[in-house]
Amino acid sequence: ALMLPASAVRAAVEDKIAEFTGGADAGADGITLTTPEIAENGNTVPIEVEAPGAVEIMVVASANPTPDVARVSFGPLAGAQRLSTRIRLGGTQDVIAVAKMGDGSFRRAANTVKVTIGGCGG
Amino acid sequence: MAEGVKARVKAPRTVAAGETVVIKTLISHQMESGQRKDSDGSLIPRSIINRFAVAYNGQNVIDVALAPAISTNPYFEFEAVIPEAGDMVFTWYDDDGSVYEEVKSIAIG
Asked: Residue ranges of the Sulphur oxidation protein SoxZ domain (chain B) (predicted)?
């Protein structure tokens, strides 16, 4: 995989988040991101994010070749503002989730995942 | 259409009206990230499912935009409210223009 300087990657991730939040500050309460501490296989890392009252949640991987992972919007028949899936991580890094709440505010959570075998196939 | 794409959905057949239920979905797909190289060193083009949407009786449950960072055979688990009997429609959108659809009927009982 193409390796960019860490500072450039961090800037790209913050730009991506600012695009989603419109530059608004994000609180840390009311959002739960669940990830393994150590992932032996970066090709399939289980994650779960929940933010009661969210209308949309964005997940980014801070050190993947491209940070986007998924963006989920919850409709009127969502039973919870929760999603579980499996993602690829190219190496040890922070996974970040940002939720847009029904009142227009934002919440943010980040977890570090140690990856033994990277999942970018580079 | 990508080869051998098969969708699987786990949803209850019968629920109480207004109940919140857990839904699990899996679709077989290679989710080629566009980052890998073949044995000649040339980049294998990206080919992924880029969107997954779920609606019940025409009302949105979730709508997910997928990036190449979603693993091979995309798996999702989420919750839905079932106000009345009806059909849950699951739709996956492929980069190549293919659309895969699965329908689960849910009864009240």
From this structure: 10-102
Q: Domain B6-34+44-108 maps to which CATH number in 2.60.40.1730, 2.60.40.10, 2.60.40.1180, 3.30.565.10?
A: 2.60.40.10
In angstroms, the CA B6 to CA A59 distance is 26
Contacts of A73 in chain B (CB under 8 A): 60, 62-64
Residue whose C-alpha is closest to residue A72's, from B58, B79, B82: B79
B23 to chain A, closest Cα gap in Å: 10
**Predicted TM-score (pTM) above 0.90:** yes
Domain boundaries, chain B: 6-34+44-108
ipTM: 0.94
Q: How far apart (Å, rounded) are the C-alpha atoms in residues A48 and A34? A: 5
